[in-house]
Amino acid sequence: MAQCAQSVQEFIQDSFVPMVSVLCSEDAERVTRKNNLSFPELLRPFCRLTSEGHLRDPNNQVVVVKGLRISVTGVNTRSPNSGEVRKLLSQAVSGCQPPEGLPANVITAGDYDLNISATTPWFEAYRENFLQSMPASDHEFLNHYLACMLVVSSREAVPTEQFLKLSQEQHRIQHSGEYTYPKWFIPNTLKYYVLLHDISDGDEQRADSVYEDMKQRYGTQGCYLLKINSRTGAAGPDEQMPDPWSQYLQKTNIHSPVSQDCFFTISPGAVLAILDVVSEIHPLKLEQSADPGFPGNPSKAVNSADTARTQKQGSVTPGAAPTAHGACLTLNDHDRIRQFIQEFTFRGLLPHIEKNIRQLNDQLVSRKGLSRSLFSATKKWFGGGKVPEKSIAELKNTAGLLYPPEAPELQIRKMADLCFLVQHYELAYSCYHTAKKDFLSDQAMLYAAGSLEMAAVSAFLQSGAPRPYPAHYMETAIQTYRDVCKNMVLAERCALLSAEVLKSQAKYSDAATLLIKMTSEDSDLRSALLLEQAAHCFINMRSPMVRKFAFHMILSGHRYSKAGQKRHALRCYCQAMQVYKGKGWTLAEDHINFTIGRQSFTLRQPENAVAAFRHILINDSKQTATQQSAFLREYLYVYKSLSQPSNEGSLPQLPLPCVHSAQTRVFFGHEPRLAEGEKQAATHVWLDQEFDQEQAQLWAELEEQVVAVANRGSVHISFQPTQYCLSSHTENLRYPFAVVEEPMFVEVVFRNPLKVPLVLSDLSLLWKFTTKDFSKPQGALNDIISTEVIPEFTVGLEETKVARLKLLPHKTGELHVLGIVYNLGTREEDNSASEGITQKLLMFVRGRQDLEIQGPRLNVTKEEKTSVRHGPDRRLDPIITPPMPLLEVFFINFPTGLLCGEIRKAWVEFVNVSAVPLAGLRVASTHPEFFTFGSATADLTPVTPTAAEHCSAYKTMVTPPSDAAVTLVSPAAFGITGDNRPTVVEIPLTGGVLGPGEALQIPLWLRGPDREGVHEISFLFYYEGLEKNAKLGHRVLRHKAVICASRSLSVRATACRSNTLPGRGKRDEREEERSGSMLVFVDVENINTSEAGVREFHIVQVSSSSRQWRLHKCINPAGDKDSKLASRERGKLCFRATRCRTQEATSDALEKYTFADLNLGNEQIVSSTTPCADFFFRRGPPSDMTSIVRKCSEVELDIIVLWKAYVVEDNKQLILEGQLHVALQTIGKEACSLSQKEEAQEMVLLKFKPDLPPPASRPSLEQLSHLIKTCLHYPESYDHPFPQKSLCMVPVTLTLSNCSLAQVDVIIDLRHKTTSPESLEVHGSFTWLGQTQYKLQLRPQEVHGLSLKACFFQAGVYNLGTPRVFAKLAQSGTMCETSQQSAMPALIIINSV
């Protein structure tokens, strides 16, 4: 149970107090009415004694009475009506609401932090009123009148006559038999005579004389002179008198007579509280028809006591002052009244009770001589004055057995009640226990239950607790009251007392069980209050039972609602919601929120109702579609009852549909154009494309490359790659840039969690704009930013759908997209419409949802790592910049499939669609070897795609087969500097500028990739504006082409030295042969498996390109010129190659390449021009490491095989052409255009990812073992006189020759390797004298001699080839030295002379 203001002892003592009645004369009543009070009301605040009282029990022991309170009420001869009592209790509960502003009690239980009210004052008010309103019963005397005050004014002509009349009236009421109510404790009721004197208007001497006469007549202990109304005038403005009556007068006293207004008072809200009983709404029913005031019942008015009370309180006339009580009383008068009560109690009431206890005790003691059995038998024989029983079954009925007032059993009970009222609990318990036995033996169950109840209470209240609390007494009493006597009022009182006792003993589980048993259908208010107290018992246990607390709070709220207590019902549901919220009990949450919403709406709290219905809709509901539709209609109806704000920025938040803010994407730019015929627009970026981190990194690297080229090799430290589409995958820490007059699209992801479709209408973005130019007038909103409005957007049941909303800025400044605004509604089909036509009804409300995006978690500094901090996300806060050029790129005749090495000519068109000129156009690509725009000297005829449709992509000349045509070409003419391939190409513009609206078409040559499969080719077009923009320096356009490459030819080439001596041929040939010549064998295989309709390949020309060698002539048989290869056929060609004559001509000729063309037909392709030379120079980069490791056996000769393929497509024969490259590097070693692995594999579809960069090539172990050539110079034989000189020293020179083109580190080790088998083959041994290990560094192709000395001990044949040489490239860093190839054995003969 909840905490109470009183202790359990105080509560029980105040529940059973001595009852005193009052009879007043009319003059006396007028005296008290000056204070707006009746006489009982005047005394009520002072009825608790502040000092101790004493009396003696029958054993002459002193009994101390502490904190005694008496109840003084007017005589009401009409018994309380049950209906009036219910109204009174309902008013007491509804008038006591939770105090606002007080801190609630926070209880932590496991994972729950519950914010609940620690006290329940409404329950205490109900309990107090319930106990006070209990009707007097014949089976007990606790609420019978013990005394009667007779009050007469001193202004009466003859006060004694008035006292006599009042005394006779009291006697008539008690003894005449006309009135069954009120009940009187004993026949000889104490009469206490009070003379009331009005000091302000009366003769004090006369009052004193009358009082003296009263003392002579009634005795000093039976009368009192009470002087009041000392104040003659009104209280001053600065004088504030206490008003102790206000708290008591709010409570209605059911014992006051209705006929006298002064005795029966009703607070203004009582009539309203009566209405609480009228409402019979069942909150568990979810149908609309169950609750008035909702869409299903628009004509019904809301009926609720709480609402009526609110309206009533709101209609009170403002400025009406509350009624003042005790206006004529001073503090001295308060003390006089307090003294009067004390005198009455100590000198009148307590002695009267003591006397009656003694008399009752004497009567009982005088009968103890008789045995109980004889006494009982006598009663049976002579009837004992009882009404005879009719049957055995009626013994258990309270109406079946009645005791006369003078019955001994009732005398015992009467004595027990008297002892209980004066706090003599030990004697009271003894009497109750004795009476209980008598009643049980007589089967007087009502009397027995009353004795059991009070015996248990007396046992509990005994000081020192000599015996434990007999809870089973209470259980028996409750069961008897409820089941046998059918008296729920007495059962409820018993339960309230027992529950309070059990709570004080921390037996919360027993208390909860007891309270729950007392719930029934006969009283919703009682059941609601007891269930709520049971819930508090569960939460106050040592181990709080949180879920039981919540469940019983729900039950209590339901019963409160049935009782019409809407506010208390709402409070119970709200407290229970704390337990069910967020724990997965979705159906329970829905029910609670739905009830809270309806109760709030009924109580005119639409904001709370909207919030509750909102919770039902935002969670993943497990309700049926019908129920969800009902929830949604309820929400829309309640929402519409709120006043709709006119400003869209102040619109409230809507719960539906769910918006995934983190998945919001923003795109800056126009929508992509569709392809038109052969004209294909650049793919660029669009919202339909999924984000790929690898692709984003690829585009960033391409952009960085082209920016570095545009800025002459440097990239600014603040460089950030351009991002057109921002999402949760991109870095959004910086403010993005948007260009004025260019649209931006915001993609919002909606999810409908319900099983009913949602209709969003007038959907648009909500934004805030800060302009940078304050000098110009702002104008209308559409003059700043044009906002697209979607008229209707439907989200299906449980569907996730994307909406793309467009903004078009017209001014520069800062834009902030705040959220979205829309009308939320739902459609219903009207079945009452005519057949075949469904009329759609749309109910909607206007609202908004904010797009709040949380940035990435920061994790750099120590503070950020130890706490949870998030950075900003600026994707919705773009900065609008001044106009910038905008480029569109179109590709014409761009293929989707090519043969490996195939050359195709296409066209590209650049269009400036902006209003500002464009400059600095460049393009970068991941596959620079795939395309070329041609060299600056290229012949651009034909100039249009139509004219070039049937022309060859090559530049050709009609020439019969002959010796090779030689051309000297510089790589710089094709954009090649050093050994680097050009990754960025500058596109020439007329005058360097592409004006607004202008277009430019230029040719584009493409070459099929060397590897078959699907290839993604990425193009990045870079351009700038003429006017430098501080925030946006450049722009880029992306294009991704997908090419499917099919097999064509496989080319293998081998070179070998020519063994012919210079003969008698032509002079030029002899010079060429003398300078060096070799044979080149070219083996060509058609590996195409008739894919794409290819019939056959023709080898039309073989060309070479090298700085040292060139093809001279073809030495194939004369009849086999034009090689034709069908599928899977092979052919072999043989050529003679000679060294270039230009090698010795000039120094710059070393940097030029010699192109030699040997055409096998009658048409020569000029390989030194576009596009053949372009693709040759754009081939794979040569290996840096291997190009500097040169031996005499290595060559640098590239073979270019040009071919034509005859293809049948759509019954038309097409001629395709292409070229393949083979790099010859070593004589005698075969080179191939494809690796063996690539040759053997079948056609497979590759994943759409960029090609991995080729691994950096390193020289082979064989090449590294030939870096140094060694040679020993020594005499073949040497004579030495060993008999004269035992040591023979021979000088030896070791010559080291660097065969490479790089610096080489050399280590020479002269120490013998004893484990070598070579050392065992020589006769004897020798040693090297002097330094035995050398470390040298040789420049490229340097020859170095090293002088050594060999020492011999005897004659013989020796092998001097023991020095070990190790070498490595100086630039190879940590690479280990490689052992060089050993020379032939070097034998020396030592002779002894």
UniProtKB/TrEMBL annotation:
Q: Which segments constitute the TPPC8 second Ig-like domain?
A: 900-1037
InterPro entries xref list: Ig_TPPC8_1st, Ig_TPPC8_2nd, Ig_TPPC8_3rd, Ig_TPPC8_C, TPR-like_helical_dom_sf, TRAPP_III_complex_Trs85
Q: Where is this region: Disordered?
A: 287-324
Q: Which residues does the UniProt record annotate as the domain TPPC8 first Ig-like?
A: 688-899
Highest taxon, organism lineage: Eukaryota
Question: Which segments constitute the TPPC8 C-terminal Ig-like domain?
Answer: 1267-1369
Compositional bias of kind Polar residues: 300-316
Gene behind this protein: TRAPPC8
**GO CC annotation: what is one?**
TRAPPIII protein complex
Entries under PANTHER family matching the protein: TRAFFICKING PROTEIN PARTICLE COMPLEX SUBUNIT 8 (PTHR12975:SF6), TRANSPORT PROTEIN TRAPP (PTHR12975)
* Species the sequence originates in: Pygocentrus nattereri
Pfam family membership, one:
Ig_TPPC8_1st
Would you tell me the protein name for this molecule? Answer: Trafficking protein particle complex 8
The residue ranges of the TPPC8 third Ig-like domain are 1041-1222
